[in-house]
Amino acid sequence: MKRVRTTLLRKAFQKDLAAESGAERLRLCPMLRKGQVFYADYAKPEGFCDEAWKAINHLSLH
């Protein structure tokens, strides 16, 4: 399996989308910082946000 590099280019929080989902407690992820680099194969890299991993892992690794 290929190893994939992921670089965090920016962080964004869209209040309108959060409000539509009914998730009142959603906030900008405090775990990741702009410029961070992660390397992964099939498993989530250490320190990577669980929700961000769920959103992208199927895009780049398969």
Characterise this structure.
With 62 residues, the chain is α+β, with helices and mostly antiparallel strands. It has a two-stranded antiparallel sheet. It has one domain (4-60). The model has no long low-confidence stretch (mean pLDDT 85). The chain contains two helices and two strands; from the N terminus they run E-H-E-H. 29% of the residues lie in helices and 13% in strands. It is elongated and about 40 Å long. The N and C termini lie close together (9 Å).
Shape: elongated
The biggest sheet amounts to: 2 strands, antiparallel
Oligomer state of the chains in this structure: single chain
Rg (CA only):
13 Å
Mean pLDDT reading: 85
**Number of domain units:** 1
Intertermini distance: 9 Å
Order of helices and strands: EHEH
Secondary structure: helix percent: 25-40%
Number of strands: 2
Quick overview of this protein structure:
The protein has 62 residues and is an alpha+beta fold. It has 2 helices and 2 strands, in the order βαβα.
Label this structure with key terms.
alpha+beta, 62 residues, elongated, 2 helices, two-stranded antiparallel sheet, single chain
Q: How do the strands and helices of this protein lay out in sequence?
A:
Blueprint: E1 4-7, H1 15-21, E2 37-40, H2 50-60
